[in-house]
Amino acid sequence: MRKFLILLMLFLAALMGVAGNMPDDDDKDKVPAWQQVRRLHPERERAKAMKKLQEQMSRRAEEKADPWDTSDDAWGTVDLPPSMRDSAAVEGRRLTSPPAADDAMQRLVWRDEPVTATIEKLMATMTVVDGEWRSRYVTGDSVGNEVYFSFYLDEDSVPGSLRLSVRYCGDNPVDYDQIVFTIDGHDYTFYPAEPRHGMQQGGLWWAASDDELNPAYRDLVYALAHGSWMMMKLQGMGGVSRVKVLTDGQRSDFADTLALFLLLGGNVSD
């Protein structure tokens, strides 16, 4: 009997404890303390969001062994200026130094301008391989990734047409039929005449094109030589494409090669 009474008392005590922990109607309308702080100080949440955005904008994609690798974060994850939003939708890396939102750049078009550099200075940046004049920084390696201007001299030592050469080498194939250059936020589309592609020893895929730049592309020529940032997209048939952000060195090579081409008597307008 005594054991039964003890068990009954323990049961009643437990039942009262549960009832005491049940929320009344007033408690249902109460907001947890951490939510009250959030409501009273919304600026803290905005500060956190701004900090996260700034960190995202300052983050740089890690260098990949494959310079055409676009497996890192795609564009469009930060608040891009209006002039970049259309091009930002393509597959590719985040730009290393996008223009400020309030500093939209104008589309570059061809201008007849005097060349200020000397032939001697420009010649030091060039090399000649099998008659092709090009930047000495172009490697020509079978596993290299290149994009550059070049030209050949005729028998009177006058340049013929300015040329655009592109070579891709990577783990994935791309059978491209157009190249879209995005320069300072504006797109310039180039259509190579006879791009080639295949697989080379070692299991790497390659694709290449080498074309004369006729007067219809002179705005592209000027933009490549004067743009402050640029990327190129090899647009493949069937929707497959590869993207590469061009380096400072490649932009300088465009400018130097075009300047020497003009000083030697070359003409882009005709």
List the topology elements:
Blueprint: H1 2-21, H2 25-28, H3 33-40, H4 42-58, H5 82-85, H6 119-123, E1 126-129, E2 132-135, E3 146-151, E4 163-170, E5 176-183, E6 186-190, E7 196-199, E8 205-212, H7 218-226, E9 230-236, E10 241-245, H8 248-263
Antiparallel strand pairs: 1-2, 2-3, 3-4, 4-8, 5-6, 5-9, 7-8, 9-10
Explain what you see.
Helices cover about 30% and strands about 20% of the residues. Helix 7 (about 220-225) packs across helix 8 (about 250-265). The chain is α+β, with helices and mostly antiparallel strands. The strands form two sheets. Strands 1-2-3-4-8-7 form a six-stranded antiparallel β-sheet. A four-stranded antiparallel β-sheet has the order 6-5-9-10, with helices on one face.
Largest sheet: 6 strands, antiparallel
Mean pLDDT: 75
Question: What class, by secondary structure content?
Answer: alpha+beta
Write down how many β-strands occur, each being a DSSP E stretch of 2 or more residues: 10
Rg is 31 Å
Strand content: 15-25%
The helix fraction, in percent, is 25-40%
User: How many DSSP helices?
Assistant: 8
Estimate the global geometry from the Cα principal axes.
Answer: globular
As laid out across the biggest beta sheet, the strand order is 1-2-3-4-8-7
**Which segments are poorly predicted (pLDDT under 50) over 5 or more consecutive residues?**
27-39, 59-64, 70-102
Termini separation comes to 116 Å
From N to C, what is the helix and strand string?
HHHHHHEEEEEEEEHEEH
